[in-house]
Write a structure and sequence with these properties.
With about 270 residues, the chain is of the alpha/beta class. The protein contains eight helices and 14 strands. It has helices at about 25-35, 50-60, 70-80, 125-140, 165-175, 185-195, 210-220, 255-260, and strands spanning about 5-10, 15, 20, 40, 70, 85-90, 115-120, 145-150, 155, 160, 180, 205-210, 225-230, 245-250. It has a six-stranded parallel β-sheet. A four-stranded parallel β-sheet has the order 6-7-8-11. Strand 2 and strand 3 form a beta hairpin. The two termini are about 25 Å apart. It binds magnesium ion.
């Protein structure tokens, strides 16, 4: 099977915090010039697509909103159709724009709500906030626990940092309720991205720096998964349960990799030395 389209993780693939990864801009321009269909697929829930697109533009990458697939977008669409009652948001200010069409409970209320949405609050998390989320769920047994991805950790300049997943896991443990997860590594999230590309899963390559979320999630959805050795990548990642179809030094090497492997029908094999 030939590869025809690409899903690109953002954080750790295109940039680390505010620093673009060398070659990212050129790689995206190359994809555009070759007319390879691609989407940005990120679990970032700390900001909305407007802010993500602005960040990309700052690096010289044109990121139209329709090309950015995020848990906030997927969850907001689901909640608009299915939430039974107002929604309690635990997301950063910059991500609220994606949820404005939903009825929301006020920030300190423990009133009845239909869903508790947990995103990446980073160092804004406090015991009080986590406990408020717990009480909302505990007092309202029908409220859904919505996770904006289940990423475990990410690479910041000061070191690895807890992401959304550990907080959701704490709430699941406390309430005995399972979260509905919107984002990587959920199969539906990858399938929605494939639908947006208009390609069957097996013709899509996912490129990411998280072996479990990006590569494992994409493979479970029927895609090929390539791990880049940037961002949160550590050599030990190759000894885990996920075996990437390919390991690529960085996004800068993607054009050459694509030329060599996309149309060979054997994208999983390493190039001959
Ligand atoms: Mg990443």
């Amino acid at each position: 099977v030939n590869l025809r389209g690409i899903l690109l993780d953002m954080d750790g693939v295109l940039y680390n915090e505010d620093a673009p990864i060398p070659g990212a801009v050129e790689a995206i321009r190359w994809l555009e010039s070759r007319k390879v269909p691609f989407l940005f697929v990120t679990n970032t829930s700390s900001r909305g697509r407007d802010a993500l697109a602005a960040k990309l533009r700052g690096f010289g990458i044109e990121g139209e909103l329709a090309r950015i697939h995020t848990p906030c977008v997927a969850a907001s669409a689901w909640l608009a159709a299915h939430a039974e009652g107002p929604v309690a948001l635990f997301v950063r200010e910059a991500a609220r724009a994606e949820f404005t069409r939903l009825p929301l409970v006020s920030d300190h209320a423990t009133a009845a709500c239909g869903a508790v949405v947990i995103g990446d609050l980073g160092d804004a998390w406090s015991y009080e906030m986590l406990n408020r989320a717990f009480r909302l769920l505990q007092y309202h047994p029908n409220a859904k626990l919505i996770a904006l991805g289940m990423t475990r950790y990410w690479q910041a300049s000061g070191g690895l940092c807890l992401d959304v997943g550990p907080y959701v896991a704490a709430l699941e443990y406390a309430t005995g309720r399972a979260a509905m997860v919107f984002g990587k590594p959920e199969r539906e999230f990858f399938q929605a991205a494939a639908g947006q590309l208009g390609l069957p899963a097996q013709e899509i390559l996912m490129v990411g720096d998280d072996a479990r979320m990006d590569v494992g999630g994409a493979q479970a959805a029927g895609m090929r998964g390539a791990l880049v050795e940037t961002g949160k990548y550590r050599p030990e990642d190759l000894e885990g349960e996920v075996a990437p179809d390919s390991v690529i030094g960085s996004i800068a090497d993607l054009p050459e990799w694509w030329e060599r492997n996309a149309f060979s029908g054997a994208a999983g094999t390493s190039p001959t030395p």
